[in-house]
Amino acid sequence: MVAEILRREFLYIGYYFVRQLSQIFWYWVAGMIIGSVVSVFFKDKIHTLMRNMKDGGAGFLGIVLASILGIASPLCMYGTIPIAASFSKSGVKDEWLAAFMMSSILLNPQLIIYSAALGTPALLVRIISCFLCGITAGVLIRIFCKKKSFFDFKGFEEPKNKDTDPNLFLRFLKNLWRNLKATGLYFLIGVLLSALFQRYVPEKAMTFFFGGNEAWGVLMAATVGVPLYVCGGGTIPILQSWLASGMSMGSATAFMITGPATKITNLGALKAVLGIKNFILYWVYVILFSLLSGLLVNLIFMLFR
């Protein structure tokens, strides 16, 4: 009897797993390919544009450009901070560095492709909210840190470039392989968790926690994003399942901001360059921005429903 129940549950979970995998697999593959193309062929150009900002563009327009370049950069946070250190040595302003680093934490070309699996509204909300989060961070640094440096990059050197194979095609394949190793396991875990949610978590529960009560749902999503977020690709299947089960777009927005911004590996790198006081300010900023963004998104979707 027990064996039959276990076999039946295994089949149910397998069904949900295969269905979820078939819905999102090609977004994952396309994301890895696009991410590797950007990393191999465009990364240096993106970073050169950032370094050259000190010679032109200023003020708010510089912050906007830095936020765009942060999203376009394919590096993870441990790669972004040494690059930002080299930018700082080149004379790039802290406000531009803040915008670049904040948006780079939240989004990259690969994650944009992954997020397309959530549908066009969620994709646009993610891009716009991450872009604005970077801009807002830069503006705040510009206003409140005019007379002192916000970052301490002592001891950080520019990371060694792994894309050095003289054969461009082999260089691309090696980068793609590293991409696969970095994201593959988390992606499959995300699909499995999504299958488990679909099998065992009632839709009414998802609506209660993340949907019906708008402010409560946004707060819950922002809170859940802190411990649950491990890898961008791994959370896409979970978010897709949650949205289908009643999660509001505002709650998804809050999760998509607090998740990557408070990912443990990102926090470790940021603590090293911010110091305890600025690190706390960073936490406060992320939580407040995610909550306000989630509430605003819910309001907009309610008005145009």
Question: Which tags fit this structure?
Answer:
305 residues, mainly alpha, 12 helices
Put the structure in a nutshell:
80% of the residues lie in helices and 0% in strands. It has 305 residues and is mainly alpha-helical.
The shape, in one word, is globular
* Overall tally of domains: 1
How many alpha or pi helices?
Answer: 12
Task: Give unreliable regions as ranges.
Answer: none
The level of helicity is over 70%
Rg (C-alpha, Å): 20 Å
User: How many strands appear in the DSSP assignment?
Assistant: 0
Structural class designation: mainly alpha
Share in β-strands: under 5%
Q: Write the H/E string, N to C.
A: HHHHHHHHHHHH
Largest sheet: none
Map the helices and strands.
Elements: H1 2-51, H2 59-72, H3 77-89, H4 94-106, H5 109-115, H6 120-144, H7 168-200, H8 203-210, H9 214-228, H10 232-244, H11 249-261, H12 264-303
Helix pairs in contact: 1-2, 1-5, 1-7, 1-10, 2-4, 2-6, 3-4, 4-6, 6-11, 6-12, 7-10, 8-9, 9-11, 9-12, 10-11, 11-12
Structure description:
The protein has 12 helices and no strands. With 305 residues, the chain is mainly alpha-helical. The chain has one domain (2-153, 166-303). Helix 2 packs parallel to helix 4, helix 6 crosses helix 12 (264-303) and helix 8 crosses helix 9 (214-228). The longest helix is centred in the first third of the chain and has 50 residues, at 2-51. The protein is globular, with a radius of gyration of 20 Å.
